[in-house]
Specification:
Elements lengths: L3 E3 L7 H10 L7 H4 L3 H11 L1 E7 L1 E3 L2 E3 L2 E3 L2 E3 L1 H10 L4 E6 L9 H11 L3 E4 L1 H4 L11 H10 L2 E5 L15 H9 L5 E4 L6 H10 L3 E4 L9 H9 L24 H10 L4 H16 L13
Parallel strand pairs: 1-2, 2-7, 7-8, 8-9, 9-10, 10-11
Antiparallel strand pairs: 3-6, 4-5
Helix pairs in contact: 3-11, 5-7
């Protein structure tokens, strides 16, 4: 069985544990996360058919978003790289940048992430610069540095919990960034929810824009994603099936139950194979030889 890549999956280890234990009530944590067990986590990955997990760092102050108080996130890039070094075939590292400069100089930290071998940068503009949309000009030097270093941008694009207002998640921001930085690969984690049809249209306009709705694939609007994936017509930049990436958002979701949900969706098999592995390889510019697609390799 060919194993997939989970674009949004954090290991139950170290600083990842510290942050998500503060975010997720004990009774809602998956078994492996509750037990802080890498062995259980790997077993759950095998059962779910996941070969690699993309784990992103993050450095942000705490703040209130909507009706929720979000605790500070302190998952350093050095920690991410150290965890990758322990499990190089199973964990793919992505750095986290604080664009406000409170935690580090963002441009210097991007250079550091390149040296550490991390494959992209996770950015939360709504938290790092309160009220900041992704097209805020203060972020443009960061996008330029990512494009220059060949790193992927993994952008938090959640309407419910992304920024000061729901407009933060509108795909027009993604369209603008992609126009201004045409070589920058952009993964919209949370899929710009609830603006599903709008981000589908942006993907048809922009070759290097990808979506990973993760938990929001299970929210109202699932059929829109499925219809777009199965649509056989080509508009602009090919087919939408080439822009969709699988992600679970573990530890918010149990790996096996989420994979069972995904497999239940009426998605064409040819598109499913792209979504589960090939699109992530392309978005992150990964060498498939470095990441085995079986657990026996």
């Amino acid at each position: 069985m060919t194993m997939c890549i989970d674009i949004r999956c954090r290991p139950p280890h170290g600083q990842f544990l510290d942050y998500f234990n503060a975010m997720i009530p004990p009774d809602q944590r998956p078994r492996s996360f509750a037990a802080a067990s890498m062995e259980l986590w790997f077993d759950e990955m095998r059962q779910a058919g996941i070969g690699q997990a993309v784990a992103a760092g993050g450095m942000n102050a705490g703040m209130r978003l909507g009706h929720r108080d979000i605790p500070p996130r302190e998952i350093t890039n050095a920690h991410v790289a150290a965890v990758v070094a322990m499990y190089p075939q199973r964990i793919i590292g992505m750095g986290g940048i604080d664009p406000s400069g409170h935690c580090h100089d963002p441009i210097e930290e991007i250079e550091k992430c390149t040296t550490l071998g991390l494959k992209g940068i996770f950015l939360e503009p709504g938290r790092a610069l309160p009220g900041c949309d992704p097209t805020d000009m203060r972020l443009y030097p960061i996008y330029e540095a990512l494009q220059r270093n060949g790193l992927c941008l993994n952008l938090q694009t959640s309407g419910p919990l992304g920024g000061e207002t729901i407009d933060y998640a509108h795909p027009r921001h993604i369209d603008r960034i992609a126009a201004d930085f045409p070589d920058l690969r952009i993964i919209c984690c949370h899929g710009c929810y609830p603006f599903i049809r709008e981000i589908i249209a942006v993907c048809m306009r922009r070759e290097h824009v990808f979506v990973a709705p993760d938990v929001y694939l299970r929210w109202p609007g699932t059929q829109d994603w499925v219809d777009a994936i199965n649509f056989q017509g080509e508009i602009g930049q090919g087919r939408f099936e080439d822009h969709f990436i699988f992600g679970t958002a573990y530890p918010y979701m149990d790996l096996v139950s989420y994979m069972n949900f995904f497999k239940s969706l009426p998605i064409r098999e040819a598109a499913r194979e792209k979504i589960l592995r090939r699109n992530a390889l392309r978005a992150l510019r990964l060498d498939p030889q470095q990441f085995p697609d079986t657990w026996q390799a």
